[in-house]
Amino acid sequence: MASPTIPIKAQLTWRGTSDCRSCGIREMALFADLTESDFGLIHAPIDDLEFAAGAVLYTEGQSGVGVFTVRAGTVKLSRTTKDGRRRIVRVLRAGDVAGLEALAGAHYDSEAVALSPVSVCRIPLDVVHNLSRNSQHLHKSLMHKWQRTLKDADDWLADLNFGTARQRVAGLVLKMRTPTAPAITTLFSREDMGAMLDLKLETVSREIGKLLRAGILQPVDKLGRVYRIVALEQLLAI
């Protein structure tokens, strides 16, 4: 739920409606390199928003209102193919930025949907433009994020859309490992996995079942979304 828009005093502009100074992922976020002298350049609220699983952050082709830094949870970016199918092109996690393309084209190229309960900071486009023009720190950080976003998108397509069905599923299991607990991987609905890997739902379910029966994966939750990687070397060898 979005916080109400309120007038903001100069000394509070960095906070907006979010407490950015004490943000737990500040070192990974878009504004990690800002200095105290940069704070006064922000003249609009930075909203701290929460979305339930399945909620839409923005739609493909929608006019851009801001960029989003993911603080917690996962977000899927999908696009419509020429034949009308939805293809997931990337999954964002804590520290990732969504909507950067709106800075150049004024519209979002993808649809962003929460895969889990999500907490994000929404930074108005004019704030980012102003800081990019006046803050060397942010401009460098923005260019770095943009380059990383493009590389990550290319990597997702390269890593997950080639090879056998088993290789694609195994690649996704590895890619979705928790950074702080690499033996744990968090997946999504079989339908979402199929849209990401360009596989049928039944094929995804069958390949996950094979990994479970082989003792490579072990379920952690009852929903079949969180797994423990028991045999990493076997998974890497697929």
Topology:
Blueprint: H1 36-39, E1 47-51, E2 56-58, E3 66-72, E4 75-80, E5 86-92, E6 97-98, H2 102-105, E7 111-114, E8 118-124, H3 125-134, H4 136-160, H5 165-175, E9 177-178, E10 181-186, H6 190-197, H7 201-213, E11 217-219, E12 226-229, H8 232-236
Antiparallel strand pairs: 1-8, 2-7, 3-6, 3-8, 4-5, 4-7, 9-10, 10-12, 11-12
Written overview of the protein:
The chain is of the alpha+beta class and 238 residues long. It has helices spanning 36-39, 102-105, 125-134, 136-160, 165-175, 190-197, 201-213, 232-236, and strands spanning 47-51, 56-58, 66-72, 75-80, 86-92, 97-98, 111-114, 118-124, 177-178, 181-186, 217-219, 226-229. It folds into two domains: 10-159, Jelly Rolls; 163-236, Arc Repressor Mutant, subunit A (Orthogonal Bundle). Strands 1-8-3-6 form a four-stranded antiparallel sheet. The chain has a four-stranded antiparallel sheet with strand order 2-7-4-5. Helix 3 (125-134) crosses helix 4. The termini are far apart. Residues 1-18 and 24-28 have low confidence and may be disordered.
Label this structure with key terms.
238 residues, alpha+beta, Jelly Rolls, Arc Repressor Mutant, subunit A, 2 domains, 4-stranded antiparallel beta sheet, 34% helix
CATH fold description of the largest domain? Jelly Rolls
Instruction: Determine and state the CATH class of the largest domain.
Output: Mainly Beta
Number of DSSP helices? 8
Average pLDDT: 79
- Rounded to the nearest angstrom, the radius of gyration is 19 Å
Counting helices, strands and paired strands, the structural category is alpha+beta
Find the count of extended strands (DSSP E, 2+ residues).
12
Major sheet strand order: 1-8-3-6
> Major sheet, described briefly?
4 strands, antiparallel
Q: In CATH, what is the homologous superfamily of the largest domain? A: Jelly Rolls
Shape: elongated
- The ordered string of helix (H) and strand (E) elements is HEEEEEEHEEHHHEEHHEEH
Query: How many independent structural domains?
Result: 2
Strand content: 15-25%
* Amino-to-carboxy terminus distance: 43 Å
CATH architecture of the largest domain: Sandwich
Fraction in helix: 25-40%
Which residue ranges are poorly predicted, with pLDDT under 50 across at least 5 consecutive positions? 1-18, 24-28
